[in-house]
Amino acid sequence: MFYKKRRRLNPLTYGFLTYLLSSVILYIVTKRTIHIMILWNLILSCVPVVLAALMYHAAKSKDWARVWLLGFLWMIFFPNAPYMITDFIHLQHLSFYTATQHATYTGDLLTWFSLFQVGIGVFIGTSMGMFSLWMIHQRFLIHLNVVIRRTFFFVFFLLSGYGMYIGRFLRLNSWDLFNLSKVTNYLTDHFTAFTLTFTLVAAGYTFLAYWTLFLLLFIPLNIYGKR
Predict the structure, then answer these.
(1) CA nearest 135: which of 210, 73, 209, 212?
(2) Most buried residue, 19, 104, 151, 166, by CB count within 10 Å?
């Protein structure tokens, strides 16, 4: 008697399903919409990885027109990943402290579960975006002149920081960029000193997030992968 070999789910699939289930349960119990919002933002943060993978396949077939189109879409969707750090503001109404003399922090487990759920989502989403940047770096940018490559990263991080500002404060989505008249009016009417400062801080955060993961994870993977 022959048995079909059972396909095992990828550990990442188990992890995502567990996170999805926990998010839904937390939303049902706490009625906090952040637990659903974080799922949507997490999905958007995964789009750059999909686009980077499609760029890989397009480059293999030397379909450079498709590579450039996918690269443009990747740059538009990339800020959704580092943007997730701003989702912590939705926890501002929660109190992690108590007013008693014997306890400094709250013993409400649901409050801590909310913090962990959002924190895990932010970490995963940011990591997915940085992984997509690493894919682009290793496949396309590594062959460029050092000056050109560093210039690309400098401009790219600034644009990503500005994209985070647009998403958080102007409430525009990645696909809104295809409506040029709407975007142009918003950008010209809302550029202030705060815009510039926030953009620089967000760009610095994105830079640190990428190079931290690059140094701690991606370089060791390259070293051990070649052995």
Answers:
(1) 210
(2) 166
The single residue listed with the structure tokens 């027109």 is 65
Question: Tens digits of per-residue pLDDT, 115-142?
Answer: 999 999 999 999 999 999 999 998 888 8
pLDDT of residue 51: 96
Q: State the alpha helices, DSSP H only, in the chain.
A: 11-30, 34-60, 64-77, 109-139, 146-169, 180-189, 193-213, 219-225
- 61: tokens are 């077939």
Tell me the per-residue pLDDT of 72-100, one tens digit each, with 9 for 90 and over.
999 999 999 999 999 999 998 888 888 76
Tell me the two tokens of residue 36.
């659903």
Query: Judging by beta carbons within 10 Å of its beta carbon (0-12, 13-18, 19+), is residue 212 exposed, middle or buried?
Result: exposed
Q: Give residue limits of the domains in the chain.
A: 11-225
Task: Check: CB of residue 159 under 8 Å from CB of residue 202.
Answer: no
Query: Token pair of 223, please?
Result: 């070293």
> Are the CB atoms for 70 and 154 separated by under 8 Å?
no
CA distance readout (Å), 198 to 24, 81, 185: 32, 16, 20
CA–CA gap between residue 94 and residue 227 (Å, rounded): 49
| Assigned token pair, 196 | 């510039």
Report the candidate in 48, 201, 199, 66 with the shortest Cα–Cα distance to residue 137. Answer: 48
What would the two tokens of residue 137 be?
A: 């770096």
Residues of the chain with pLDDT under 50: 1-3
